[in-house]
Amino acid sequence: MTETTSAFGSSRVKRGLADMMKGGVIMDVVNAEQARIAEDAGAVAVMALERVPADIRSQGGVARMSDPDLIDSIIAEVSIPVMAKARIGHFVEAQILQALNVDYIDESEVLSPADYVNHIDKWNFTVPFVCGATNLGEALRRITEGAAMIRSKGEAGTGDVSEAMKHIRTIKGEVARLSALSKDELYVAAKELQAPYELVAEVAATGKLPVVLFVAGGVATPADAALMMQMGADGVFVGSGIFKSGNPQARANAIVKAVTFYDDPSVIASVSRGLGEAMVGINVSDLAAPHRLSERGW
Amino acid sequence: MSVGVLALQGDFREHAAVLRNLGAEVELIRRPEELSRINGLVIPGGESSVMDKLARAFGLAEPLAGAVRSGLPVYGTCAGLIMLADRVIDGITGQQTIGGLDIAVRRNAFGSQTLSFETDLDVPVLGASPVHAVFIRAPVVETVGPRARALARLSDGRCVAVEQDNLLGTSFHPEITGEFRFHEYFLQKVAAANFGH
Question: What are the positions of the active site (chain B) (predicted)?
Fold first, then answer.
């Protein structure tokens, strides 16, 4: 760029890309072929990773950033934004992903955490970050560290939408509660949320997060996606739900349409027909606590 | 005066908020039958490939192209500019547009998100003070055909804003920077066109 007044990597530019993804579906893909299917189905972005969460869950072991060759092959295949995951606190994986020219980094609890105390200082990067949150305080702490987009965590790799529901309800409910507080009550609210007062006051005044809020973790059907949109999500991530189902192409298409027409049951009904098997799934209540990914991150 | 905002995907709420601020009545548009109620339309930022796909799947693309041909004023930002372009370079396989602007647009012309940027631009048609413009994986207008007119260029000469009769397009996003002048300029076109009456 020759522009003398150009600013790269500003908050506005980082948060702006998330704004452009609103009303859209971000799909997990593990190879170029899946990325092509996702783009053709109308994904607004793809998440490039080696194993979808359902496989990470069933195969176990340490889950890390994907192979750069895999990420390159997916970037080469599609023209929509490509996201990739770094481990919580693993700022070198994030440096590598930025060097690979991914469009967004997901500092993700789906991978094994690299630091059980600190998250990545995301202000140090030009590339924007999305981070998971289960409640408002966690979301605001991530934004304080520089996250430009938040996704509620849900419980990845289960196909059970109940945790996603719990987290979006919690975040929305806490935002609404803040809006109802008087000004002098916000100091204690900030203390309770363990988040900076300025950010808490901003949320109280505007009635929403200062960044885009997507939902993730357990969305497996068009109805699940529409449910999250009716709950006030700006968009959805679908991980294992598409490529672990009987007919990924049809399901991807259907979920994209259900997100756009989330408030029109006749459209959701019509796109829900003939999709074949949904992913089998695991009930979150059957998961022993150490296997709950949403409890990673703090 | 009722202005539609295409609400298939993208930052349509930001456009709706700017238009309401300027006193326009706003309708979010997702279905062909909703087009009959509007005197102008904004196509927001987002993913052009997604908007194209949904516009065709729900039967909106053809009536919209017809409305543009018969003079519906339309303003497109970023993905919206691509939707209004007669020719797209670097689209996905099979990508189509509504068309109307005699231009060729290169999709995602600056590269990955780390090359997205903000800068000040001179836009003489909007007055002397510069427009602060945000480019997010933005397109550029590579060829301005004889029927279209460039309204703004980057310092390297690349065209990033165009108009042609009732159509207006920008590579960047006034809707997220508090810059209202493009929308005001567009609403003047809508008022002058008096489309549908």
Answer: 78 (nucleophile), 173 (charge relay system), 175 (charge relay system)
Alpha carbons within 13 angstroms on the beta-carbon side of residue A180 total 6
| CATH classification of the domain holding B136 | 3.40.50.880
pTM: 0.96
Q: Which two tokens stand for residue B88?
A: 């797209």
Residue A5, pLDDT score: 57
Q: Which residues pair with B85 in a beta bridge?
A: B101
Residues 6+ apart with CB under 8 A from A269: none
Q: What is the pLDDT of residues A176-207, one digit of tens each?
A: 999 999 999 999 999 999 999 999 999 999 99
- Amino acid identity of A81? P
- Position B27, amino acid: E
Closest CA to A267 of B57, B68, B10: B57
CA–CA dist A139, A135 (Å, integer): 6
Q: Which domain holds residue B149?
A: 2-193
CB pairs under 8 A between A and B: 134
Q: A257 and B57: CB-CB below 8 Å?
A: yes
Q: Nearest to residue B46, comparing CAs of B123, B159, B136?
A: B136
What are the structure tokens assigned to A23, written together? 């009303």
Of A16, A98, A260, the CB nearest to B9: A260
The pLDDT of residue A296: 86
Q: Is the pLDDT of residue B166 over 70?
A: yes
Question: Given a cut of 60, is residue B58 above it in pLDDT?
Answer: yes
Quote the tokens at residue A236: 């959805």
Active-site residues of A: which are they? Answer: 85
CA distance B23 to B3: 10
Residues of B in contact with A256 (CB under 8 A): 50, 53-54
Asked if ipTM goes beyond 0.85, one says yes
Q: Out of A203-212, A241-250, B140-149, which region has the weakest mean confidence (pLDDT)?
A: A241-250
Tokens (6 digits) for B72: 């519906």
